[in-house]
Predict the 3D structure of the following.
Amino acid sequence: MIRNQSDVAWKEILGEYFKDFVEYCLPELYGLINWKKHWSSLDKELNAITKGSDVGNRLVDKLFKVYLKDGQEQWVLCHVEVQGKQDDDFPKRMFTYGYRIFDKYQKPVVSCAILTDEAKNWRPSSFRLGLAGSYLSVEYLVVKLIDYQDRIKELEASTNPFGSVVLTQLAALDVKRKPDEERKQVKFALTRRLYDKGFKKAEVVNLYKFIDWLIGLSKPYELEYIHEVYELEETNYH
């Protein structure tokens, strides 16, 4: 079961902007992939290895098939942890997903954890089981979004759509305990930036939905926000 709006938002945004995510957050991996060949989402394959398991059907996770520049087929698992707190079982889940995918499909897997929580020192990147010198282990990539708090100017200047995604997640963390008036101002500033960057209308819609999911407002302020967005829309597309 999808837990909350953030889960929904992250599932949708990774599906739309996987390539942009890899380019912005995983540049080394981006340089290895042949983006001229079609990449695709493997939701059915991911559901097959999680259905009925003790790790649960993690609908927020995404599995993609890409091709490397050397022609090799490569699967990329993106696991998004949006619960906002430490989870001691998380590294085990990363291990379990990786070996189940390889066991069932015999495909190499690059695993990446996207951590959206606020605990700066929590950044699990490996899991290991062993006894008497025999071990099973996994190491995976970690993208810790609060690391980008020191790169706000870079994010604001970026024309990569995923820069807007990271900005929105950081803003959502910052304003979650603030009054609606301030939340509305931040939400509108994020939305206006989409138009200022000259994104195409389809991209504006996708990113607007992500902003809307992550930063909620009470009804009076939401109505004000929608009216202001409508005026933006009229100015930019009419």
